[in-house]
Amino acid sequence: MLNKEISEIKKQLDNELRHIHFSNENNVLERSHPRTFLQKIKYWWNKEITIPLVPVGAIIVIVMGSALTDELGSLNSQKQVISQQRQLVKIAGNIYWNDLVEEELRR
């Protein structure tokens, strides 16, 4: 009984689809089963790549963090060297950097 119904449905489907023909069979076969070297390269480049977001994000954060801490460390050492070279001067109750005062006096 079930086989009879399936065969009737199959006949009806075949009857309805008899006017429809698939014309790109060769193109599909060439893409799915490449034969030449060029087709194989195109097939290989056509693959989807999935990139895991969490590990890549963690690596980026670590690299950026290490670069930032190195940069901040060098800035702090530069500020210490500069501040050791500069002297504060008190003039008329106000405190100024000595090099800035000397620069203003030269003008």
Task: Point out poorly predicted stretches.
Answer: none
Helix content: 55-70%
| Helix-and-strand structural type | mainly alpha
SS elements, strand count: 2
Helix and strand run = HHHHEEH
- In percent terms, what proportion of residues is strand? 5-15%
Largest sheet: 2 strands, antiparallel
Measured distance between first and last alpha carbons? 110 Å
Shape field: rod-shaped
Largest beta sheet: what is the strand line-up? 1-2
Number of helices: 5
Q: How much is the average pLDDT?
A: 82
Radius of gyration: 39 Å
Briefly, what is this?
The protein contains five helices and two strands. It is mainly alpha-helical and 107 residues long.
Keywords:
107 residues, mainly alpha, two-stranded antiparallel ribbon
Would you write up a description of this structure?
The protein is mostly helical. The protein contains five helices and two strands; from the N terminus they run ααααββα. The chain has helices at 2-16, 25-32, 37-45, 53-85, 98-106; strands spanning 88-91, 94-97. The radius of gyration is 39 Å and the shape is rod-shaped. The mean pLDDT is 82.
Chain-wise SSE layout:
Blueprint: H1 2-16, H2 25-32, H3 37-45, H4 53-85, E1 88-91, E2 94-97, H5 98-106
Antiparallel strand pairs: 1-2
